[in-house]
Amino acid sequence: MTKKLLHNFKAYGVELNTVDVTNLITLRHWRNQPEIRSKMENDSYITPHQHRMWYENHVMKSNNGYWIVKYKNTSVGYIQIKIDEITNTVEPGSFLVDSPVRNALLAISLMLIQYDIAFYVVKANKCIGKVRSNNIRAMRFAKQFGYIEDSVSEEFSIYTLCYEDYSKAKERFTRFFTDADLT
């Protein structure tokens, strides 16, 4: 199932550039912003040493995918795809930072490209989403893409997205894009 996801992708008006040492400082700065940190499973502040260890132990030594998102030649966010080879599932994650080019279509682009990678490149059976229970906006957005709520706790909601449900949702969104093919 697994392919080493150390290459760039382009579709839906965005480019995904693999995380490398040249963008680690920017990524850590983004990740430590309170509005982003508060939405993460691990919401603690990340030190330079912790970030470097994450890079060395995860980005460089795993088959998972980690990308900086560019839109209109501006770095605007981050996408990751964690692969579970045993269950043939992926856990996608992403965030957008405040930017002059940020818009509603950009969030849709992120979801489409990340699920295309999950289902067409990785060939996952399904995506598993873990969302903080207070992140109502993300939960609503996940449901628009076909996610089904599996469980809810005080802290997190767990969602599952299968290929068939994503395909149906994708049809509604791709009409907004001229470059809907993953390259």
Helix/strand layout:
Blueprint: E1 9-11, E2 14-18, H1 24-31, H2 34-37, H3 48-59, E3 65-71, E4 74-84, E5 89-96, H4 104-121, E6 126-132, H5 136-144, E7 148-152, E8 156-162, H6 163-174
Parallel strand pairs: 5-6
Antiparallel strand pairs: 1-2, 2-3, 3-4, 4-5, 6-8, 7-8
Helix pairs in contact: 4-6
What are the defining features of this structure?
183 residues; alpha+beta; 8-stranded mixed β-sheet; 6 helices; 8 strands; 29% strand; globular
Overview of this protein structure:
By secondary structure, this protein is an alpha+beta fold. It has helices at residues 24-31, 34-37, 48-59, 104-121, 136-144, 163-174; strands at residues 9-11, 14-18, 65-71, 74-84, 89-96, 126-132, 148-152, 156-162. It has an 8-stranded mixed beta sheet with strand order 1-2-3-4-5-6-8-7. The model has no long low-confidence stretch (mean pLDDT 90). A hairpin with a 2-residue loop joins strand 3 and strand 4 (74-84). Helices cover 34% and strands 29% of the residues. It is globular and about 40 Å long.
